[in-house]
Amino acid sequence: MKDMNSGQPSSLPDNLAKIVSIVFHPLLIPLYGLAILLSAPTFLKYLPVEAKRVLFTVILIDNVFLPLALLPFLKYRNLISSFNIDDRRERIIPLLITSILYCTTSFIVFRYQIPFFLKSFIFATSVVAIVVSMINFWWKISVHAVGAGALTATVFSLSLKMHTPLTWYLLAVILASGLILSSRLRLNAHNPSQVWVGFLTGFLGISLFILFI
């Protein structure tokens, strides 16, 4: 396999880094976070199946399918040059659209009778999306790293709030975060500052909001 940018054969580490970047794409992180919240050994695990199905459906449509569906249109209008959206300026519109969709998800979910922790999680993701969009106006931040930090903070906050040791969950998200950050650096998609600031933005945005609101 050849690297799309250099035309040189891609190494195994590069290919693995690309796979990690796809599997842990930022658009998928809220789904992973919700799956953890509804499967971890807390009272949230016993939420009615219908309520779980509604939550997954809303997030899947609003925060995964719709943003992905809009990418071909943005490319057709020459608002982005590629689906990777590596250029900071090209990220402005997609990130703003994503922020609006996250806010829409929060509005929809807040109308349902579900535990406040879940509402806090979904609203916190909206706040983080808006913060990332604002930062991107001036500086290229790693959105993958933001997602990694948010996922780690979700498990950390759940463990503290529910007074439940989630050791294996924490180890899993920490390992995943290490893979994500390393992959972005390996692919030269970001420099260390963009990666670490991204991780801290996601971690602090989720944990501070859930723990203190």
Number of domains: 1
Task: Please tally the β strands and state the result.
Answer: 0
**Secondary-structure element order, N to C:** HHHHHHHH
- Specify the biggest β-sheet: none
- Average pLDDT figure: 91
Task: Name the overall outline.
Answer: globular
Beginning-to-end CA distance, first to last residue: 48 Å
**Number of separate helices:** 8
SSE class: mainly alpha
Radius of gyration (Å): 17 Å
What portion of residues is helical?
over 70%
Determine the strand fraction and express it as a percent band: under 5%
Low-confidence stretches: 1-6
Describe this structure in words.
By secondary structure, the chain is mostly helical. It has one domain (12-212). 71% of the residues lie in helices and 0% in strands. The chain is built from eight helices and no strands. The chain has helices at residues 12-23, 29-39, 49-76, 92-109, 116-136, 143-162, 167-186, 192-212. Helix 1 crosses helix 7 and helix 3 (49-76) packs antiparallel against helix 4 (92-109). The longest helix has 28 residues, at 49-76. It is globular.
Q: What are the salient characteristics of this protein?
A:
213 residues; mainly alpha; 8 helices
List the helices and strands and how they pair.
Elements: H1 12-23, H2 29-39, H3 49-76, H4 92-109, H5 116-136, H6 143-162, H7 167-186, H8 192-212
